[in-house]
Write a structure and sequence with these properties.
The chain has twelve helices and 13 strands. It is of the alpha/beta class and about 425 residues long. The chain has a domain of about 240 residues: Type I PLP-dependent aspartate aminotransferase-like (Major domain) (Aspartate Aminotransferase, domain 2, 3-Layer(aba) Sandwich), CATH 3.40.640.
Length: about 425
């Protein structure tokens, strides 16, 4: 039976920030349009929304510097440039991530090296300790699916070896670790405000750091290769900050939406956490279900529930049965899926990585003599045994903030019924 033959979709679409878009965002964008000042550095009547947004995140994160950019993907690329990542370097990345993390490393001319995950579905600090070397230029910590792993241990390993951390908070915006905001732990932190994220303007990103020299480098990289002076002019005098930049500036209409959305983030996360607790609590009562481990039950942003089942066949069947029972969104969303259907989030689904396809037909950076050390690195299925096992047996449920408590209970009952029908409730 296909989904078309099943009950009507039970789940609202999963795009969290879209549910809190309202008249306030419309008014803010109208401010920008009426002022005819869509570019942040000059215009008829600057509204300074990008400045306001950066200030809000400096306060939120307790960081000295925040830079608004046009996407999380750009933020990752800028982070690599800030830390001077290039040929001869490797960056350690977890096996559960997003393709943009890999692209940032490869496009910098460096080599991604895979680190296994543990049952938090984030980087395993023990495997990190085994794999960090003198060639490791950075550790990319990714708070996947709304929660951290053992962040304290990961930070300790990196600090002991003198390796900087890039903290990817794209999927965990508004989350915390032991009371401190995510995005406050890395030497550099990045955020995404793409449509799937907790707050959104459709696109957008942010880079955060405390080091002023790194910030000026980031500014140059996001804006044509030069920082700007106090008058908004390109500053060609600071050679230490100059780089080959790109046009990754955040526009004022985007910043206007995000300045309003940021004020709604805490309430949105509170709602997501409450729904996550209800869903996870119900699913935890099933003897066949193992909930994702957490290093900080009070942290994270509550945006995803991950469940591991006894074996791959059970996982597939439970997902199929619950989807037929209506635990799915409409035709445009992607929710209640087996991990093996979770696309480019799984390391071995990234064909360009597995086949070591470069940024040109010549295979760079893997063909660069400076990267000969990585000739034996493999990226195919089987490279990360723990990740492979978890991916095969796990399913993922995004938490829509508009889900009602009754709907959440119906979702839990659908999973319980599916498990009972397989004799494993």
């Amino acid at each position: 039976m296909s989904d078309d033959d099943a009950r009507a979709p039970l789940l609202p679409y999963e795009w969290p920030g879209s549910y809190v878009l309202g008249d306030e965002e419309v008014a803010a964008v109208s401010d920008v349009l009426r002022a005819r000042s869509l570019f942040r550095f000059y215009g008829h009547d600057l509204q300074h929304y990008a400045d306001r947004f950066e200030a809000a995140y400096r306060l939120r994160l307790g960081r000295r510097h925040c830079l608004a950019v046009n996407s999380g993907t750009s933020a990752l690329a800028i982070a690599m440039g800030m830390l001077d990542v290039g040929p001869g370097d490797e960056v350690l990345v977890p096996g559960y991530l997003w393709v943009s993390c890999l692209a940032a490393v490869v496009r910098a001319g460096a080599i991604p090296r895979l680190v296994d995950i543990d049952d938090t579905f984030t980087m395993d600090p023990d495997d990190l300790a085994r794999k960090i070397t003198a060639r490791t230029k950075a550790v990319l910590v990714v708070h996947m699916s709304g929660a951290t792993g053992h962040l304290d241990r990961i930070v300790a390993v990196a600090r002991e070896r003198g390796v900087p951390i890039v903290e990817d908070v794209a999927q965990a915006n508004g989350g915390t670790f032991r009371g401190e905001p995510l995005g406050s732990f890395g030497d550099v932190a990045i955020f995404s405000f793409q449509y799937n994220k907790a707050i959104t303007a459709g696109e957008g990103g942010l880079v955060a750091c405390d080091d002023t020299a790194l910030y000026r480098r980031a500014f140059a990289l996001h804006d044509l290769g030069y920082p700007r002076d106090d008058d908004g002019r390109l500053d060609t005098d600071d050679a230490s900050a100059q780089g080959w930049g790109m046009g990754a500036r955040m526009s004022e209409p985007t910043a206007a939406v995000l300045t309003v959305q940021e004020t709604k983030l805490d309430a949105l996360v509170e709602r997501l956490r409450a729904l996550h607790a209800r869903l996870a609590g119900g699913l935890a009562s099933l003897s066949s279900a193992t909930l994702r481990a957490t290093a900080d039950p009070a942290g994270g942003n509550g945006s995803f529930v991950i469940v591991t089942w006894p074996d791959a066949a059970s996982c597939r069947e439970i997902v199929a049965r619950t989807r037929r029972a209506g635990v799915r969104p409409g035709p445009d969303g992607l929710n209640n899926v087996a991990f093996e259907d979770w696309g480019l989030h799984l390391y071995h689904h990234n064909v360009g990585l597995v086949e070591k396809r470069g940024t040109s037909t010549r295979g760079y950076p893997w063909t660069d003599p400076a990267n000969a050390f990585a000739r034996g690195y493999a990226y195919g299925r089987g490279s990360l045994p723990r990740a492979d096992d978890l991916f095969a047996r796990s399913s993922l449920l995004a938490v829509p903030p508009s889900l009602t408590e009754d709907q959440a209970d119906t979702v839990v009952e659908a999973f319980a019924e599916a498990a009972r029908s397989l004799g494993s409730a």
